Known about the structure:
Structural class: mainly alpha
Largest sheet: 5 strands, parallel
Strand order of the largest sheet: 2-3-4-1-5
Radius of gyration: 33 Å
Number of helices: 46
Strand content: 5-15%
Amino acid sequence: MNRNGVLQRWPLVGREGELKDFDEVLSEPRSAGFLVFGPAGVGKSRLAEECLDRAAALGHRIGRAVATAAAASVPLGAIAHLLPDGVDLSDPVSGFANVARLLSQPGTARPRMVILVDDVHLLDATSAMLLRQLMDAGVIFLLGTVRSGEGQALAVAALGHGDAVRQVDLAGFTREQVVTVLERVLEGPVGRSAVNHLLASSGGNPLYLRELVVGAVAAGVLTCDGEIWDMTADRLPGTRRLTDLIGSRLSVAPLAGRQVLNVLSLCEPLSLGHLEREAEPQVLSELEQLGLIVVVQEERRSAVRLAHPLYGEVLRADMTAQCRRDTLLRQVHLLKQSGARRREDAVHLATYKLAATGTANPALLVRAAVLAAHAREYPRALALLRAIPQQHQSFQVQLLLGKTLYEAGDYQQADHVLSQADAMATTEEEVLSALPVRTQNLLWGLGTPYAEVLDVIESARGRVTSPLGHRVLLLNEAASALTVGDVRRSLALTADLEPEGTHAPDAQAWLWAALTRSTALAVTGRGEEAEGWIRRALAFSSAAGETDSPATHEVSHWAVLVLALAESGRLAEAQEVGGRAFGGLTDASATADRRLLAFYLARGAWSAGHPAQARRWFAEVARASRPHTPVVLSMALAGVAAAAALQGDCEAAEAALAERGRLPVAGYFPEERLGEAWLYVARGELTRARAVLTAAAREAFERGETASEAILLTDLVRLGKAGEAAGRLTEIAAECTGPFHRSRADLAVAWSTRDPEGLLVAADALEIMGADLLAAEAASTAASILRAEGQNRRANAAAVRAEDLAARCEGARTPALMVCEAVVQLTGREREIALLASRGMLSKDIAAALTISVRTVDNHLQRIYNKLGITTRKELTDRLLP
C-alpha cells in the first residue's frame, strides 16, 4: 500500500453521533447554527466539511469562509466573497436588509443558505454581527469551527449564544475509534501492539494519527503479513508534515520555557517541585496555559509531562548532542542533590548517566537493570546490562541478562548467556536459579529435543545435594514434560504438591509447580481442579507482592486460568477474564507469557465457534513469534489455518499450513492437526478430514491429553462420525468433571441416534456455556431430523434458533450449517459427494479423492439431483453454499 492509498481511504469515523446531531439541527426550521469546538488537529474542519456536503446533498445552497487574524483586521474581510455584489454596507441597517433580501429564497424547499466558517473565533466584530443577524432572520444556517479555549472570544459569544445554536465538543479518538479507523484504512485487522503504539504516539489526535500511519506505511514500519497489520519497529517515523505541524505548535513556547520542554523530552515525567528548580513558576504556568505541558497528580506528587507524546520526538530531534549531554548531566546532579530516594531514581540515574557519557557506576547499572526488568522494560534493562564492564559480569548479572534476553525473544543469545551463567554457578542455589529459565528457553524458544533438555537437568542433578534442591529439579522436569506433551509424567511429579504456598519450603518453586500442575490438569480435561490450583497460585502471588519477584509472571497465571475456565465450559467468562488481563498489559510485556495468554484466548474463541476472533488472536501470536519462537509459531499457524478454513478462506489456510510446514521444529500437540482437518472440510474432502481427526484423537489419547482428544472427537461428531466418537466422549465425561464434557458426550449420543430432543437439550446447555457454533449445529441438525419426521412446526422453530445462534458465529461454515434442510434425505456418502461437486470438482477428481469409480460418483450425483429436485451443478452450488 502506498501513501496516497492511505490518504485516499482515510475515513471520517467515530463522529457518527456529531453527524446525527447536525442532521437533526439542520432539519429544525428554528435552529440557527452548529458550532464544533475542539483542539487543533482533532478533525473539526473535516467534520464541518462533511456536514456541509450533507447540506448540499439535501439541496441547500452552501458557502465557505476561513477566518484568520489577517482577515480580522479588515471589517467583513473573511466573508466578503459570500456577500451579494453591489451591496452598500455603509448604512448597516439598509445594508443588512439588502443582504438578507438578496441571499434569501423564500418559497423554495431549502430557503436557508448553509455557510461554513472555519475558526469562528478569529472573525472580526462586523462579520460576526452581520452573520448573527442573518441567522436570526432565518436567511442562513451557520456551521462553524472553534478552537478549544476560545469560547470567550467576542465572535464566538455573539454567534454561539441562545438555544437555536447547537454546540458540540470534539474530543480525540478513543482506543475503539482508533481501531475502527485503522482497520477501515488498512483494510484488515491491526495488531494490538500497533494500535497501542499509534494511540500512545498520536494521543488520539486524528490528524497526527493519519500522518503517523502514512509515514509508518511508507517507511515499511507498519506492515501486513497477510493476516494482520503490525509494527516492525518501536519508533514511528511520521511525515515531514507532522514534524512541521508540531514544530509550529512548539514555537509559541517562551524562550525561558524551551529548556523545560527539552528536559521533559528526555526525562518525563518529572515532579513539579523538581522542575521548579529549572524555571520560575510563572514559566511553567505559561507553558501549561499554552497547552504544551500538563500537570497531573500521581499518588502524592504533582507530575509534569509534555502535553502530547509526539512533542518529545520533535524536541529531541532538534537538540544538539552537547545540549542533550548537558541536560542529562544536570538531571543527574539534581537527583543526587535531592537524595534519589524514590525507587525509580536508580533507573533514572543510571539511564541519564549512560545516555550522557556512555558509562555509569556498575553497581548502579545492576540495580537499575533489576528494576527495569521487574517492570518488564526489557529494552532498557538490556541496555543497562550490556553497559556493565566485563570485569563486573558476575553470575547474577549473567543470569539476569539471560532471563531478559529470553523475555525479549532473543533465544539463541539467551542460551549462550545462560550457558555461561550455569558454568559460573558455584553454589547449589545458583545452579537451581539458572536451570528453570534455561530449560524454558531450550524448549519454548529453541524447540530443543526433550532428551537434550533432560540431559541438562541431569547434569544439574550432579551438582545438587539437598532434598529441597532435588525437589526443585523434579519440578523443573515436570514443567519440561508438560511442555512436550508428557502430561502423565508431569502430573505424577507434582502429585504431592502442598495445597497452599504459604506452607511450602520454597515459595517460588511452589508457584512454578502450581502453574505446571494446573496446566496439566486442564490439558487432561480436569478444568475445575485446574481452576482451583491456579486461583490459589494467583492469590499467593498477589499476597507475596512485587518485592518477592516470583519466577513466573502473574500473566502466565491468568493465561492458565483462561484455559481452565474454558475447559470447565465457562467460555464467555474465560474470554472476559483473559481480555481484561490482556488489556492491562503494556507492550513491554510482549513476552512468552503474553503470547501464551493470547493463544489461550484464541483457543477459547475457537471453542466458542467465533472464527474471526480466534483467527485474529492466533494471527497476533504468529506475528509475535516470528522468527524466533518456532514452537509457538507452529501452534499459532495451525490455529490460523483452522479459523480461516472455518470461514471458507482456503487460500489463507493453505498459506498458514505451508509456512508451518517450513518450520524447523514440529508442533508438540495433536490439537494442531485441526488446521489440516478443517482445510479438508473447507475443500469438501470430509473423508480425509475425518482420517486426520481420528489419527490426532488417537495420539491425544495415548499422550493423556484428554482436553485435546475431546475437541478432536467432537469435530468427528460434527463431520458425520458421531457413532464412532460417542463412546469415548461418554467415557471422558465420566472420567472428567465439568459440564462441557457432559454436554459434548450428550451431543454425540443424540447425533448418533438421530434424537432431535437430545440435540435440542444439548444445544441449550452448549449455548449457556458460550459454545455458540456447536449449539447452532445441534439445533440445525435437530431441525433437519424433525422436518424429515414431518414435524414442520417444531422444525421451523429449531431452524430459527439455529439461525440465531449461527449469526453469532462470524460467518462460520460447517457441513451441518451449510447443507440445506432438504439434504437430510441424503446419505453420508451422498452429502460428501454433493459438497465436493458444489465446489466445482469434476467427477473424475471426486472419484480420485474418495478412491471410488467415476461411474459411482455420477450415479450418486444423479440420485442427489433427484432428491433435491435440481438438474445442474450450478443449482447444487446455489443450494449448498451460502
